[in-house]
Amino acid sequence: MNHSLHFRASAAACARHARTRLSQTPSGKVCYQLRRPSHTGQTHVVLEPVAFLRRLAALMPPPRVHMVRFFGVFAPRHAMRREVAALAASAAAASRVRASLPQPAPRQGAAARYRWAELLARVFAIDLTRCQRPGCVGTTKVIAEVIDPDVIAKILTHLGLMPEPAAAAATAAARAPPRRDIFVGPTALWPDQP
After folding, report:
1. 3-state class of 182 per DSSP?
2. Into how many domains does the chain fold?
3. Rounded CA gap, 182 and 191, in Å?
4. If you average pLDDT over residues 67-95, what whole number do you get?
5. Within 10 Å of residue 63's Cβ, how many Cβ atoms?
6. Strands 30-33 and 44-47, how do they pair?
């Protein structure tokens, strides 16, 4: 391999140590040493010089073309692009809030579990260990755990957070059974086989 081809190939590889991994065999083929062995145990790739350059050329982006393309609502001229950008800004604000929360110490062992308040703080960026009333800086603590569905329904109904039982029980009307007459009989799509 001549010097200019070697320089182009190593410059295209964009790695400082690519020249040490690139060599030419006595038969004139290009030998590239992989950084780590593949799952089959292969450590080198040996190619004809033209095939090697063809693979390198496939890695080069076309000139004056964006490397990242967006489709759907992420496309630049989509009608909902502003709403998506606003959601991204609010998500960034939520991540800043999440970063400002005190981070729990890492758990030790596989059986370690997070408290429910820590999970809510991690997922929804709300700290339930602090009082939510305006102007209050106190901490909260768990005084009871309610797991009975009837008691939960009674509490939510008292607070006005439970939908009316009649509205909750109302379901959509059932659909009619499938019409078998279009599948069986003399005028059916698929008549019975004798």
Report:
1. helix
2. 2
3. 9
4. 81
5. 5
6. antiparallel
